[in-house]
Amino acid sequence: MTSLAMALGALPIAMSLGAAATSRIPLGIVIVGGIIFSWY
After folding, report:
1. Distance CA 32, CA 34 (A)
2. In 3D, which of 29, 28, 32, 35 has the Cα closest to residue 13?
3. DSSP 8-state class, residue 4
4. Which of these, 30, 28, 36, lies nearest to 5 by C-alpha position?
5. Computed from CA positions of residues 20, 23, 25, 31, in that sequence, does the dihedral angle turn out positive or negative?
6. CA distance linking residue 20 with residue 27, whole number of Å
7. CB–CB of 28/7 below 8 Å?
8. Can you give the pTM of this predicted structure?
């Protein structure tokens, strides 16, 4: 349950828009992907 909350909390970083989004999107994908991968 905590992992799911962390993944959903980091999801806006992976789906960010704007000028600095190009540097934040890969970081968000790694965070969300790592949490989901460690969950299974």
Report:
1. 6
2. 28
3. H
4. 36
5. negative
6. 12
7. no
8. 0.70
DSSP 18: S
- Distance (Å, whole) CA 21 – CA 40: 29
Dig out the tokens for 5 from the structure.
């909350």
**Dihedral over alpha carbons 31, 15, 40, 5 (to 10 degrees):** 80
Task: Give how many domains the chain has, as a whole number.
Answer: 1
1-40 confidence digits (pLDDT tens): 788 888 888 888 888 877 778 888 888 889 888 888 987 7
Residue pair 31/12 in contact (Cβ under 8 Å)? The answer is: no
Provide the domain limits for residue 35: 2-39
Q: Which amino acid is at 35?
A: I
